[in-house]
Design a protein that fits this description.
CATH class: Mainly Beta
Strand content: 35-45%
CATH architecture: Single Sheet
Strand order of the largest sheet: 3-4-5
CATH topology: Rubrerythrin, domain 2
Shape: globular
Bound molecules: zinc ion
Oligomer: single chain
Distance between the termini: 27 Å
Number of domains: 1
Radius of gyration: 11 Å
Length: 56
């Protein structure tokens, strides 16, 4: 399963056990990306800004 980095457009391979809310690093641009569910599949969005709410 792959999703597209919203920052640089590179395809990113998602772990098979990926869950919405998980954070991944883009290996191309080093952006921190949050996984979210969209229409039954997974997509990525920039995690900047939500990191402050990531209490742990
Ligand atoms: Zn990227």
């Amino acid at each position: 399963m792959e999703a597209i980095c919203p920052v640089c457009g590179s395809p990113i391979r998602l772990p098979e056990d990926v869950i919405p809310g998980e954070l991944l690093d883009c290996s191309s641009c080093n952006a921190v990306l949050e996984v979210f569910e969209e229409g039954g599949s997974y997509a990525l969005r920039e995690a900047q800004g939500i990191l402050e709410d990531w209490g742990e």
